[in-house]
Design goal:
The structure holds two protein chains of two kinds.
Chain A lengths: L3 H16 L5 E6 L4 E9 L5 E7 L11 E5 L22 E2 L7 E3 L13 H21 L15
Chain B lengths: L4 H15 L6 E6 L4 E6 L7 E4 L9 E5 H6 L1 H7 L1 E9 L4 E4 L9 E9 L11 E7 L9 E3 L5 E10 L2 E10 L1 H9 L12 E5 L3 H13 L3 E5 L23 H12 L4 E5 L8 H10 L2 E4 L4 H13 L4 E6 L5 E7 L7 H7 L1 H5 L6 H7 L13 H20 L9 H4 L4 E5 L26 E4 L13 H8 L15 E2 L1
Helix pairs in contact in B: 5-6, 5-12, 7-8
The chains are: A alpha+beta, B alpha/beta.
Chain lengths: 154, 488
C-alpha cells in the first residue's frame, strides 16, 4: 500500500524529470498491480539506443531504487561476455543483475542512499554510465576508469 | 574451601551445635596465632583442628527456592502433602537453584520434593527433600516460609549422596522485592515498570542495552531481529556459546527474564523491510522509546520515517569501523534533527559503520573488491551501548517524578560522539590522548554535539515543498500536477 506522501513524491519526480528536459523518462503507474516504474529510452552520444528502468520499491524513497538496462539484452562487455555474468562488479560499476539478466547500474550503494536523492539524479548517473560503457567497448578498459570521479554521495 | 567430607562434617556439626546451643563433639575456638577460628574435636588423641576462613563460612551447598512458587502451589502441598520441585544443579551440586527462578537452566537438572512435615512418606528414590516443619513467630532466617494461611514453616533440606544423607542449607527468596530494593537507591522503585522499550536490532549494542534496561526495571520490551546467534557473535554479544543457533530475540528475551522476571517481552523475529512496515508501526506507536541498533542504513531510514510519523523518540547507535569510536543520535520528532537530517549534515559519519558480519561486508563489497569483516572489540562497543542505554533511560523517566529526570537538561545535544582511539585515515587521526585539558577534543570522552534540523528534510521537513517551489510549482497543492501516465 502506497502512502499519499509516496504517491505525491512520484508525481513530483515525474514533473522534475520533464522540467529538467529528461522527457525521454517518465514515472508510470501500473494500474493492475498498483506498482510504479520510472523508465524510458535514451540515446548515447554515438546514437545507440538504450532502455533504462527503475522499478520503484515499496519503501521508496527511504529504500534505494535499482536501475536496470532493459535494452539491449543481454548487454555485452568488450570481451564478448554478458556483463550480467560479472554480478556485483567494481570495475564495471554494476550491482546484482535482475533475474532475467538485466544489468543493474550502481548509482548509489544502500549505505549511501538517502531520501533526498531525486530520480532525475539517478537517471543522470545512468546516462553517464552508458557513455562510460561505450568508452569501455572502444578501449577494453573498465567502466570504473571513466566514472572514477562519480561520487556516491549527493 | 576444603573438599574433605570428614572435615566438612566436623565443621558442620560444630556450627550446628553452636547454632542450636547444645554441646557437640566438635567445637570452635579462636586460634590467636593463626588469627582464625578453629574447630577442634574432643577426645581425639591428636586434636584435629580445622581452620575456618571466610570462604569456609560459605562452604556448604545451598538450595534456593522461590517463595512465590511455593505460595502459588500451597494448595497442592496441603492436599497431597508433597510437591515435586526441579533445580538447576551448578558446580557439581554446590548450588541448587529452582528452575522457576530463571529462564536459563544449568546443563544438569535434579529433581526433589517438598514435604509437609515428617508425617508424609517420601516417595521412593527421592534423593533431594525439603521438609517443612512447623515454626513460630516471624520470619527468622532465610529457611523460613510463611504460607498464604499465615502458618510459619522452617525448611530442612536433605539430600542423599552415595547412600549417605546430609543436610542442605535452604533459602527461600522473594524475587521482586529483593530486585527492586537494589534499584531503589537511585531509581524510584517500579517507576519503569509500565514503560515499553522497542529494540530494533539485537547485536552487541542492542543486546547490551536490553539487559541494562531490564536491570533498571523496565517492564515491557518488544524485540525485533531476524538473526540467529553464531559462534562468531559470542565474543561480543551478551549471549554465550550455549545459546548458539537460537534466534537473537529469544536469547535476549531469556536474558531479560533472567534479570527481571516480571518483564513482559514480545519477540518479533523478522527484518525491518518496507514490506514489514505496517507490522512495525503499532510497535513503534506503543513504545515509550525506540532503540535502533541495526547495522544497515535502509532499516534506519525506514524506522526513522515511522518514528517521525508516529511522533515517537528514537535512538540510533552504532560503532565506526573496527569500533575506533561510535555515535548515538537521539531524534525527538520535529524538535531535533531526524536521521535523514543527520545523513544530509554528516555524510561521512553517517556512512562510517562497523563491518561486523559477512552480510554487512557483502552490502558494501564488490565481487572484484571484497571487504573484510572487521568487528571491533566488545570493550570498544560497550561505551556506545552504555550511552544508548543512558539516553533511553532519560527519555523513560522524563515525564515521571524520578530524580533522574534532571539529566534531561544535561543531555540536551542530539548527537553524541565517542572515540576509542585516534584511527589513522580518519579525520580524528590526530586527536590527542585523554588528558586533563579542556581546551581540546580528545579520545575517551563523550561529546554532545548540536545539530540543526534540515528545513528541507524529506522526512521531517519541507522537502517536497522546497523542490516544488524551486521549479515554480505550487508547493501546497500537488493535486494540480498532471497525474502519472498509466500502464496496464
Amino acid at each position: 500500500m502506497w502512502s499519499n506522501e509516496q504517491r505525491n513524491r512520484l508525481i513530483l519526480e515525474n514533473e522534475v524529470l520533464h522540467r529538467e528536459d529528461f522527457t525521454q523518462f517518465s514515472v508510470y503507474w501500473y494500474r493492475e498491480t498498483d506498482s510504479y516504474e520510472a523508465s524510458g529510452n535514451t540515446s548515447s552520444n554515438s546514437g545507440r539506443v538504450y532502455s533504462l528502468a527503475i522499478p520503484i520499491p515499496r519503501g521508496f524513497p527511504q529504500v534505494r531504487p535499482p536501475m536496470y538496462i532493459t535494452y539491449p539484452l543481454p548487454l555485452y562487455a568488450a570481451n564478448g561476455t554478458p556483463i550480467s555474468s560479472l554480478g556485483v562488479s567494481h570495475d564495471m560499476h554494476t550491482l546484482a543483475p535482475s533475474s532475467s539478466g538485466q544489468v543493474q547500474i550502481c548509482h548509489w550503494r544502500d549505505n549511501r542512499w538517502h531520501s533526498g536523492i531525486l530520480l532525475h539524479k539517478v537517471f543522470l548517473k545512468g546516462l553517464i554510465w552508458i557513455e562510460a560503457y561505450e568508452q569501455h567497448l572502444a578501449t577494453g578498459r573498465p567502466v570504473a576508469e571513466f566514472v572514477s570521479t562519480m561520487k556516491e554521495y549527493a | 574451601m576444603t573438599n574433605d567430607s570428614q572435615q566438612q562434617q566436623m565443621i558442620r556439626e560444630a556450627m550446628k551445635a553452636i547454632a542450636e546451643r547444645r554441646p557437640g563433639r566438635s567445637k570452635l575456638v579462636y586460634d590467636k596465632t593463626k588469627r582464625t577460628i578453629v574447630a577442634v574435636t574432643e577426645g581425639a588423641q591428636t586434636p584435629r583442628a580445622l581452620n575456618i576462613t571466610a570462604d569456609d563460612a560459605d562452604m556448604f551447598a545451598v538450595a534456593t527456592l522461590s517463595a512465590q512458587w511455593l505460595t502459588d502451589h500451597w494448595g497442592t502441598v496441603l492436599r497431597d502433602g508433597m510437591l515435586p520441585v526441579r533445580f538447576s544443579s551448578w558446580d557439581e551440586g554446590d548450588a541448587l537453584t529452582q528452575i522457576e527462578l530463571g529462564p536459563l537452566p544449568a546443563p544438569s537438572v535434579v529433581e526433589g520434593i517438598v514435604r509437609l512435615g515428617q508425617g508424609s512418606a517420601a516417595p521412593k528414590g527421592s534423593a533431594l527433600q525439603f521438609i517443612l516443619l512447623p515454626g513460630k513467630g516471624p520470619i527468622s532466617d532465610d529457611s523460613t516460609f510463611v504460607a498464604p494461611d499465615g502458618s510459619v514453616h522452617h525448611a530442612q533440606g536433605r539430600r542423599n549422596i552415595n547412600g549417605k544423607e546430609e543436610s542442605l542449607d535452604t533459602d527461600f527468596v522473594d524475587l521482586q522485592p529483593e530486585l527492586a530494593i537494589r534499584r531503589s537507591a537511585l531509581l524510584e522503585t517500579n517507576i519503569l515498570r509500565d514503560k515499553t522499550v522497542l529494540l530494533v536490532g539485537l547485536g552487541t549494542g542492542g543486546g547490551h542495552a536490553a539487559v541494562e534496561l531490564a536491570k533498571c526495571g523496565v517492564g515491557r520490551f518488544d524485540l525485533i531481529d531476524a538473526d540467529r546467534l553464531t559462534v562468531g557473535n559470542v565474543v561480543r554479544h551478551p549471549g554465550g556459546l550455549s545459546q548458539v543457533g537460537r534466534l537473537k530475540v529469544n536469547v535476549m528475551r531469556d536474558m531479560i527474564y533472567d534479570k527481571n522476571p516480571d518483564a513482559q517481552v514480545t519477540v518479533h523475529p523478522f527484518q525491518v523491510t518496507a514490506e514489514n512496515l505496517e507490522t512495525i508501526r503499532p510497535l513503534i506507536a506503543r513504545a515509550d522509546v525506540i532503540i535502533c541498533g541495526t547495522d544497515n542504513r535502509p532499516s534506519k531510514l525506514l524506522i526513522n520515517r515511522l518514528c517521525i510519523e508516529e511522533n515517537n523518540v528514537a535512538l540510533y547507535g552504532g560503532a565506526f569501523r573496527r569500533a575506533y569510536g561510535g555515535q548515538v543520535l537521539r531524534v525527538r520528532p520535529k524538535t531535533s534533527p531526524c536521521h535523514e537530517c543527520f545523513v544530509a549534515a554528516m555524510p561521512e559519519e553517517s556512512t562510517d559503520e562497523e563491518i561486523s558480519s559477512q552480510e554487512a561486508a557483502d552490502a558494501v563489497a564488490y565481487s572484484d573488491r571484497p571487504v573484510a569483516v572487521e568487528p571491533g572489540l566488545s570493550l570498544d562497543v560497550l561505551p556506545i551501548a552504555n550511552m544508548l542505554t543512558k539516553l533511553a533511560l532519560i527519555e523513560l523517566v522524563a515525564d515521571t517524578s524520578s530524580t533522574l529526570k534532571i539529566l534531561k537538561a544535561d543531555y540536551a545535544a542530539p548527537w553524541y560522539l565517542w572515540l576509542n582511539r585516534p584511527e589513522p585515515g580518519t579525520r580524528y587521526a590526530d586527536w590527542p590522548a585523554l588528558s586533563d585539558s579542556i581546551d581540546e577534543m580528545t579520545i575517551n570522552r563523550w561529546y554532545g554535539i548540536d545539530l540543526a534540523r534540515d528545513s528541507d528534510c524529506p522526512v521531517c521537513g519541507g522537502f517536497m515543498e522546497s523542490i516544488a517551489a524551486s521549479y515554480g510549482l505550487d508547493p501546497k497543492n500537488f493535486g494540480n500536477l498532471p497525474s502519472l501516465p498509466t500502464k496496464e
